[in-house]
From TrEMBL:
EC number(s) given by UniProt: 1.20.9.1
Domain of life according to the entry: Archaea
Keywords in alphabetical order: 2Fe-2S, Iron, Iron-sulfur, Membrane, Metal-binding, Oxidoreductase, Transmembrane, Transmembrane helix
Gene3D superfamilies linked to this entry: Rieske [2Fe-2S] iron-sulphur domain
Enzyme class: oxidoreductase
Species for this entry: Sulfurisphaera tokodaii
Name of the molecule in the record: Arsenate reductase (Azurin) small subunit
Classification via Pfam families: Rieske (PF00355)
Stored InterPro entries: AioB/IdrB_ssu, Rieske_2Fe-2S, Rieske_2Fe-2S_sf
Transmembrane stretches, start-end: 16-39
Matches recorded under SUPFAM superfamilies: ISP domain
CDD domains referenced in this protein's UniProt entry, alphabetically: Rieske_ArOX_small (cd03476)
Length: 217
């Protein structure tokens, strides 16, 4: 009797809420199950790409014939071949010729001893730019020690050793002329400088411009 009363005492609104909640939970569960079947989860398996490298054996064939490998000969691009002296002007050690090569003042010197890049019967004739590698002042040749001296800051370059700096400011050699000696005539030709002459960024190009009257620009 008392229990029946209890049942009857349940608030109808509360009962509706409980019933509604239970129905919602049941619906969600059913949705999950149905959704699982309707939209099965797929897993994309990414296969790693495997690259198989074949070993290639190299067979070296030994040729029995002789192959001539072409020799790379450095070219003096842009310089011109120009006569700068004759052997008759350089008969004694210490003699020198002052001349112009492609618009640059140069010395052609007979050192009297076999010298680096020297030409002539004794390989003792060399040529150099007359402009100091430090700031371009005109050098003076001193036969007593075979050096080119700078009167401005007293640098010295050894004419027998390719213009190597022996005293002073510049950390470089004096630009040397590449010379060629023609035995039949005794003529000495300049083929170009082995370094940039002071104040030039392209000695050959600017020399050509000077020769054609374009100036040293
Ligand atoms: S210009 Fe010749 S040492 Fe300075």
């Amino acid at each position: 009797m008392a229990e029946g009363k209890k049942k009857d005492n349940v608030d109808p609104n509360r009962r509706a809420v409980i019933i509604g909640g239970a129905a919602a939970v049941a619906g969600i569960a059913a949705g999950i199950v149905i959704g699982g079947y309707a939209f099965p989860r797929t897993t994309k398996v990414i296969q790693p790409q495997v690259t198989v490298e074949k070993e290639v054996s190299t067979v070296t064939q030994v040729s029995t014939t002789t192959t001539t490998v072409p020799t790379q000969v450095p070219q003096q691009v842009g310089y011109v071949k120009q006569k700068v002296a004759n052997i008759s002007q350089l008969t004694s050690p210490g003699q020198y010729v002052t001349t112009m090569y492609m618009g640059y003042l140069v010395y052609i010197i007979k050192t009297g001893v076999p010298s680096e890049n020297g030409v002539g019967p004794n390989n003792d004739i060399v040529g150099f730019s007359a402009s100091c590698a430090h700031m371009g002042y005109i050098l003076v040749y001193d036969p007593s020690n075979n050096c080119l001296l700078c009167p401005q800051h007293f640098s010295q370059y050894d004419a027998t050793r390719g213009g190597m700096q022996v005293v002073g400011h510049p950390n470089q050699f004096l630009p040397q002329l590449i010379l060629e000696y023609e035995e039949s005539t005794g003529d000495i030709y300049a083929l170009g400088f082995n370094r940039l002459v002071y104040g030039t960024y392209n000695t050959a190009l600017q020399g050509l411009a000077q020769m054609s009257g374009g100036g040293n620009s």
